[in-house]
Amino acid sequence: MQQIISFWKTTTGKIVVLGSGGLAGLFFICFACTICSVFIGQVDKEFVNTNRTQIPPTAISVSPTNTIEPTTMLVSTTNTTEPTAILVSPTSTTESTSNSTTLVSDSGNGYLSGGLGLSQLDWEQKHTKTNLDYQPMGTGYDNKYDIMFQVGNVWHIEYIWGSKNPVAPDVVESESKNLIPSDSQFIETYSPKDIPELIVNLYFSESLKNRFNNKDSLFGNWWTGGKPGNFIVVYGVFNGKVSRMVIGIGNNP
Fold it and tell me: Comparing C-alpha atoms, which of 100, 163, 97 is closest to residue 134?
């Protein structure tokens, strides 16, 4: 048999000369290795596929450990106090009303008046609240008086006879004397410019000065147009008759 020479390069870089029998043996070994590699790869593939099918996929639900279900919480505090409306009567206000001023009697303080400057308490002991034929600026009394109070005292008096029952001027003068301080001093009578039918009687009362302190006034002065202690009696004469009279502090008809 003709010898066949083949060359095989090993990992060491050397050249090995093989005979025909060695070459056939080498081919057999390579073939066997190839068969084993294919077989082992096939087995490994089947093993992997088999294991994949044995573990079914599952859905994992994770519940957080710190989750707290929201709830409605009613908290009752031991110090909770139901809100209430507190009515406070100021002892000194700039613009007072009959409902916000402490009522004090004038008995014992030496102030004497039939109306103007009188305390609300003393006024209401002598007069009764009533409705009037019109909407009063203040509070109606005895079906004829419209009274306004400031700092707990009578500040404005309106005496109403009405257009159906007007009176003569001398009746007005007489009635006015019953509603002013006892120490009142008449100063003058005058009529405003261009209003000749309006009669203004200007007075002064020393005791009245102490009934209205300017520091309690919203505008810093109770005595508009005059000086402390001044007050006026005002009424209009139409056809010789008078339907109403106003008495107020200051000198501003």
Answer: 163
pLDDT > 90: what percent of the chain? 49
pTM of the model: 0.59
> For residue 157, which of 232, 105, 98 has the smallest C-alpha distance?
232
Q: Which DSSP symbol is given to 42?
A: H
More confident residue, 87 or 196: 196
Query: Other C-beta atoms within 10 Å of 26: how many?
Result: 14
Cα separation, 172 vs 157, in Å, equals: 13
Query: What is the pLDDT at residue 103?
Result: 55
User: Collapsing DSSP states into helix, strand and coil, what is residue 7?
Assistant: strand
Q: For residues 112 and 122, is the Cβ–Cβ distance under 8 A?
A: no
What is the average pLDDT across 155-160?
96
According to DSSP H, which parts of the chain are helical? 20-54, 120-126, 169-177
Measured CA to CA, the distance from residue 148 to residue 120 in angstroms comes to 9
State pLDDT tens for residues 164-193.
999 999 999 999 999 999 999 999 999 999
Token pair, residue 171, equals: 């009746």
